[in-house]
Design a protein that fits this description.
CATH topology of the largest domain: Rossmann fold
Strand content: 25-35%
Number of domains: 2
CATH class of the largest domain: Alpha Beta
Helix content: 25-40%
Strand order of the largest sheet: 3-2-1-4-5-11-10
Shape: globular
Distance between the termini: 53 Å
Structural class: alpha/beta
Order of helices and strands: HHEHEHEEHEHEEEEHEE
Number of strands: 11
CATH superfamily of the largest domain: Vaccinia Virus protein VP39
Amino acid sequence: MSSYSFLAGCYDGLTYDVDYAAWADYIEAHFSKAPLPGRTVLDLACGTGSLTRELALRGYEMIGADQSPEMLAQAAEKNRGVAPVEPMFLCQPMERLDLYGTIDACVCCLDSVNYVTDPKKLARAFQRVHLFLMPGGLFLFDINTPEKLEGLDGQVFLDETEDAYCVWRAEFSKRGRVCSYFMDIFRLDRETGQWDRGEELHRERAYTVAQLTAMLEEAGFQDIRTYGELTTRPPKPGEQRIFFTARKEAQTV
């Protein structure tokens, strides 16, 4: 079982409730706190490119990077002809990020950071983002908190649409600090009328604020701040999702 190879074909349908416009509003609110060097933005772990498209429509020059070819195929089709500049997509894991030039901001949303379950690889990913950011550039990402991931242990969930049916159960390893999602997915093939079945395993690591802050500092980031879910206030105890912002030091004249 591998993540997103089968799920890609029905991901958008099963995540219909994600308000990408609201996420883009939130991102832009952080962009406006201090001027960005420019308008080139990397959507790291972009998935099917819904957020990429939302930001492209707002005038940002977008680059999407993801390690799933199947998700990127969906993203490329979704963003075809998007004005004013059609996004570029790259098939790369975070820790091996390799861009053709610099970026002015990087966003990594919907707990994609948790999916990097090896702390060493995540530390390298932060270093790669820092490398390609322009001085004064912003890095914004969110995580599922340890409290949320621990609370999922033993729970079973069902998501369904007219074309897809997904049953998944969660198991949290206290020793490994990893939450595993075991998914059974049924997807309708509209050409044949038959239902195809796939299985996938998704894993998220529980990172603390202190761990991530240390990784960001080691990568060279400054002005590291945390926020509650889609808010500009500090996180509260028991928060389910936390946002981070960090900046690359601006050059002084």
